[in-house]
Amino acid sequence: MLLAILISCKEHKSQAALIPEPKEPEIIEEFGFKLNNYKVINDTIKSGENFSEILDRHHIEYPKVLEIVNKIRDTFNVRRIKSGIPYTILAKNDSTEQAQVFIYKHSRVRYTVIDFKDSIPTAYNGRKPIRTELKTASGIIESSLSESVEEQGLSSYLTFKMADDIYAWTIDFSRLQKGDKFKLIYEQLYINDTIPVGIGEIKASYFEHGDKPFYAFKFVADSTLNISDYFDDEANNLRRQFLKMPIKFGRLSSRYNLRRRIALYGNKIRAHKGTDFAAAIGTEIMATANGIVTESRRKGGNGNYVKIRHNSTYSTQYLHMSRRAVKVGDVVKQGDIIGYIGMTGNTSGPHVCYRFWKNGVQVDPLKQKLPAAEPMKDAIKPTYFNFIKPIKDQLDIIEYSTIMNEISITEEELNS
């Protein structure tokens, strides 16, 4: 009997050892919340749908919705939610499934949290953590830069950065030659560690055009303003003081013309002292150079406009905005958003009328020999040359390819 009991105990222990211990549930955290505590509902805003309808569907009655809207209006205007934008509802994890939190996802990175689970609703903006990985790319041009970039499965943003930013004043990209080459060291951005969400900075580039080399390295030469620029391997600034146009995407629709006939004024000759760039309503308008906002107002035929003083010689003005994004006294950097394309004032279509003053006289910006940006100070150059040496070495060893380059490098390798 004793032997039978011992054998039975061993069998029970053996069977117990085979039964796996229950695992603790995985803790899932996102947007600053422990999602395990909620019923998570992901959806997309439908055409014609509004904030009140969404919350009503998730058991929030109208008086509470009105309270939420009034409390958060300084942070988030619910009337501006757009169809096609995804959102997440965090609801009670019980039979009521009543909404507690609404998360509006502006992009894969930016979001707004509207938290109404407590007595006082709150709203705040957030960004998902981004991981940055340095990558390299290269190519040999057969017909165009964009084609060479796209054939390799690379982002078209790299084409834009090279053509309209880094080398905008150095290389005429309408006259590229077959056999021209490029190399890049750039940032690939990820969320959730592995999901790509776009391109960050181009740290350095090399472009060979007509057998001539053009290096570009991003560097902060002015620590006071903390504005970075692209400089070549001899510390020359590649940027001009002014951008060519105040919008990134659009077209030149009307030139500066002192004898232009204007339909709005009975087809009479009336000097047009601006340069018009047409684009869709809401398109961002950029400051074409660093400066201080001297006017930001709405007036007569100009509609909403902003005027910027850049120095004792140059000023610029931007007319017909749908809305302005800066006020008098603001310091703006080249490329900062100062307003949005509209049709305010006297205009027959959405555009920005770009006006350009030199020594107090309005002139044609497309005919000006615009000055280069501020040169690098001699005292900074030794630091700069030490900074670019390992990066230039890394650029030089990148091999040209006709397929997507998957090489990744670390910041330590870049600066070693």
From TrEMBL:
Gene3D superfamilies: 3.10.450.350, Glucose Permease (Domain IIA). Residues 135-257 form the Csd3-like second N-terminal domain. Its main location: other. GO terms for molecular function: metal ion binding; metalloendopeptidase activity. It comes from the Bacteria. Keywords: Hydrolase, Metal-binding, Metalloprotease, Protease, Zinc. Transmembrane segments: none annotated. One of its GO terms (cellular component) is cell envelope. Residues 271-365 form the M23ase beta-sheet core domain. Coiled coil: none annotated. It is found in: Cell envelope. This is M23 family peptidase. It comes from Gramella jeungdoensis. The lineage of its organism: Bacteria, Pseudomonadati, Bacteroidota, Flavobacteriia, Flavobacteriales.
